[in-house]
Design a protein that fits this description.
Blueprint (H helix, E strand, L loop, with lengths): L8 E2 L5 E3 L1 H5 L2 E2 L2 E6 L2 E4 L11 H7 L2 E2 L1 H7 L3 H7 L3 E5 L8 H43 L1
Parallel strand pairs: 2-7, 4-6
Antiparallel strand pairs: 1-2, 3-4, 4-5, 5-7
Length: about 140
């Protein structure tokens, strides 16, 4: 958090709202903020711990990183870990009008991931089973 005259607004529920201009200024290793799904995260303390290296995070610092975050396919654990760096919300004036499409993209991506998680191994098991039966029948008849 920062008390240097930020242009943030606090809603009645205590959530702080940050403008994109303010977030853009937080793009150095001493202070790195990103926006993911309209939520603002101060990831400064995580830079050295990030499994993909701090360079990847510094490339995204000071910007909206939703697409990059989703493209990597972060695990549920990584998403839960992200919550500890939450500091507020992106100001309403800076949010994209098409945020509903982002929600649809992430939902469909999660759904397809679930299908491939069990469908590909199931098909492989059936193919191996059929090949084994065919092999065993062929050797019994000889």
């Amino acid at each position: 958090m920062n008390n240097m005259g930020d242009v943030n607004h606090t809603a009645d529920c205590g959530v702080k709202y940050y403008t994109m201009d303010e977030i853009k200024s937080r793009n150095v290793s001493k202070e790195a903020w990103v926006v993911i799904h309209d939520k603002v995260y101060d990831i400064t303390g995580f830079l050295e711990e990030h499994p993909g290296g701090e360079e990847v995070l510094l490339e995204q610092a000071g910007s909206v990183a939703t697409e990059s975050f989703e493209d990597v396919g972060h695990s549920t654990d990584a998403r839960e870990m992200l919550t500890q760096y939450y500091i507020g919300e992106l100001h309403m004036d800076d949010r994209k009008k098409g945020s509903t499409t982002e929600a649809l993209i992430t939902t469909s991506a999660d759904g397809s991931s679930t299908w491939t998680t069990w469908l590909i191994p199931a098909i492989a098991a059936v193919v191996v089973g059929v090949m084994y039966r065919y092999y065993m029948l062929e050797h019994k008849s000889s």
